[in-house]
Amino acid sequence: MVALDGALCGLYMVNQRHRPPQESFGAPGDPSAEPFAATAEQLAAYFAGELTEFDLPLNLRGTPFQGRVWAALQEIPYGETTTYGELAVELGKPSASRAVGLANGKNPVGVIVPCHRVVGSTGSLTGYGGGLDRKRYLLDFERKARSVEAALF
Questions:
Q1: Which residues are annotated as catalytic?
Q2: Which residue segments constitute the domains of the chain, with CATH numbers given?
Q3: Fewer C-beta neighbours within 10 Å, C or N terminus of the chain?
């Protein structure tokens, strides 16, 4: 986890693509300080199936287009997917599905900003900074949790 001015700006997985060099993160922060404690709590609740939407202060650094893509990702409902093309159309850039994919891949806070919910035009699993096995796991996890919730209510 990486924070700047009390807001989460990076959450990186082991072997993640597009991960900045460790030395660029600066000195380690106090793990009990915010936003680290809240991030850890919310991630634990997410993986326990108790949280479907994160509510954390974010300080994401990217281009204006990346910012628009990352904001749109946060609107994809838990347990659902969209395609790169559908996201491009939603952003008013119907021919920009590749640019959407690149911005998606540069998302610095995977899981929190759910880039794993974007799939290829055929529904295939394509590209994920944390690896396709993780993407498959996250999508399956959310679908199962959502199925259980629907069955209960």
A1: 115
A2: 2-47 (no CATH), 64-152 (1.10.10.10)
A3: C
